[in-house]
Every structure is written in structure tokens, then in C-alpha cells.
Amino acid sequence: MKFSDLLDLTFDESENTIDLDELGQKLPNTPKDVLSQFYSDHGRNNEFQSEYANIEIDLLQWNLIEIDAETIVKSSIHPNFRGWFEAVSNRAKRFSNERWESIDCRLEVRDYWQTNRTWMISPIFLDGQIIDSESKFHLVEGHTRVGLLDGLLKHDILPKSQLHTIWVATKNAI
């Protein structure tokens, strides 16, 4: 099953998502976080389809791994999302005055970062080889989270060696 085949699945127009139950039936070995964040939320997104249409998603092996922050922020990013990533990263410029309030307008997100120094939900990455990227990883979903991490590193709020969990697809089975 290719990413482009997601266009044929049941779509809930009121939620703007692809049906999670159907996704789970079609991709039973895919973690729910990936089904939800990547396939359900973005399977009909034109930019995502343009970038990932030919990837054989049923052959991807997904793993939740812990990796250092510096490696994460060096991941490749689709050029259409670079502006947003940089805008979020720049929020940390206000950290010295606004503290954790500078990073997000959502109280639960701010509180979680302040307490845990990481994200609430792990972002989604592809092994860079899957899309012929020179980077080890390619960020698929979680541009706000990883952009924020980038800013927190640039402003020495978090250490580059700190570990964070991410979902990574490999092409071991391809």
C-alpha cells in the first residue's frame, strides 16, 4: 500500500481525517500514534501527497526510539514546512523574559515542557534513506515540536545531549 492509496480510504469531512479504524485494518503493524498523526491527519494533504505518495507504507517498520536532541534537529524537513519550523524555533528568543509562556499558547503544552523538558507526543520521522535524504532522519509530522526543540537548543535552555523519543520508520522490510 502506497501513501497515495490513503486517498481511497474513508474520509471524515467534519474532522478532516481518514478513518482510524480502517487505517488500523489496512496497516495492522503500524503504531496508533503514526496512524493518527501521519496517515489520518495528513493522508489527504496535498503537500504530504506530493512528498510521500510513492512510499510503500505497508512495508515500513516503525520503532519508538530515544535519541539526542542535536541529532533530531539536524533532520531534513520538507521545504514547504521550513518557514513554520523557523517561526516556532524563534519563540525561544523570548524565553529569558517570558519563560515557558513563550513556547506555546496552550497551557498543557507549556506545563508539560516545563516539567518534562520534552514533548507530550513523539513526532514522526522517516529514515532519511527512504526519501533519499542526506540527513539521517526526515521529519514528517511534528514540525512545531521539533521547531520548539531547535529553539530551546539554540538558546541553551535544553542540552543538545538530552534524549527525546521519536517514531522512526525504516525500510528494513522494503
Describe this structure in words.
- The chain has eight helices and seven strands; from the N terminus they run ββαααβαβαααββαβ.
- It is an alpha/beta fold and 174 residues long.
- Helix 5 packs across helix 8.
- The strands form two sheets. The chain has a five-stranded mixed sheet. The chain has a two-stranded antiparallel ribbon with strand order 1-2.
- It has two domains: 57 residues, no CATH class; 109 residues, no CATH class.
- Helices cover 39% and strands 18% of the residues.
Strand fraction: 15-25%
Residues in helices, as a percent range:
25-40%
User: How many strand segments?
Assistant: 7
* Count of the domains: 2
Distance between the termini: 12 Å
List the keywords.
174 residues, alpha/beta, 5-stranded mixed sheet, two-stranded antiparallel sheet, globular
In short:
Helices cover 39% and strands 18% of the residues. The protein has 174 residues and is of the alpha/beta class.
